[in-house]
Amino acid sequence: MSDTPAPKFLGANTALPASPEAAELDYVPNPRAGQLYMVRFAAPEFTSLCPVTGQPDFAHLVIDYAPGETIVESKSLKLFLGSFRNHCGFHEDVTVGIGQRLFDEMQPRWLRIGGYWYPRGGIPIDVFWQSAAPPEGLWLPDQGVSGYRGRG
């Protein structure tokens, strides 16, 4: 029997957190600790609110990371990202804040996030952040989100 704690949210009926600050991210041991590889999460229907108008903003987020000792449990990440639905924030703050929180808590070897935001005021705003230069030898595929042409 393992003394590793079970994931907190998997298999449980879990309400959406009221805010990103209230959301709890869960991390589990990296099943391939010591191996250099990349994990990608794509959230093509991410939403938050404009801090000025309160209107919804939509984005396609792509989160790539090279795990260290832990990996983020995907249901907790889904709940965390969903908690932004009623959160007011500028695109830059939301995108960079998600990347920094994951990096600070999970402590991966490397992390990057691309926030491909749909137009606000007629201008799409894309925001990119990474923790540092990627580790030597890490395969970095393109994030696969085209420049704005209806994001189709």
TrEMBL record:
It is found in: Cytoplasm. The active site is at 50 (thioimide intermediate), 57 (proton donor). GO terms for molecular function: preQ1 synthase activity. GO terms for biological process: tRNA queuosine(34) biosynthetic process. Pathway: tRNA modification; tRNA-queuosine biosynthesis. Its main location: cytoplasm. Keywords: Cytoplasm, NADP, Oxidoreductase, Queuosine biosynthesis. The keyword Ligase does not apply. It comes from the Bacteria. The keyword Secreted does not apply. Substrate binds at residues 72-74, 91-92. Pfam families: QueF. Its EC number is 1.7.1.13. InterPro entries: GTP-CH-I_C/QueF (IPR043133), NADPH_dep_7-cyano-7-deazaG_red (IPR050084), QueF (IPR029500), QueF_type1 (IPR016856). One of its GO terms (cellular component) is cytoplasm. It catalyses: 7-aminomethyl-7-carbaguanine + 2 NADP(+) = 7-cyano-7-carbaguanine + 2 NADPH + 3 H(+). NCBIfam families: QueF-II. Catalyzes the NADPH-dependent reduction of 7-cyano-7-deazaguanine (preQ0) to 7-aminomethyl-7-deazaguanine (preQ1). Belongs to the GTP cyclohydrolase I family. QueF type 1 subfamily. This is NADPH-dependent 7-cyano-7-deazaguanine reductase. It comes from Qipengyuania marisflavi. The lineage of its organism: Bacteria, Pseudomonadati, Pseudomonadota, Alphaproteobacteria, Sphingomonadales.
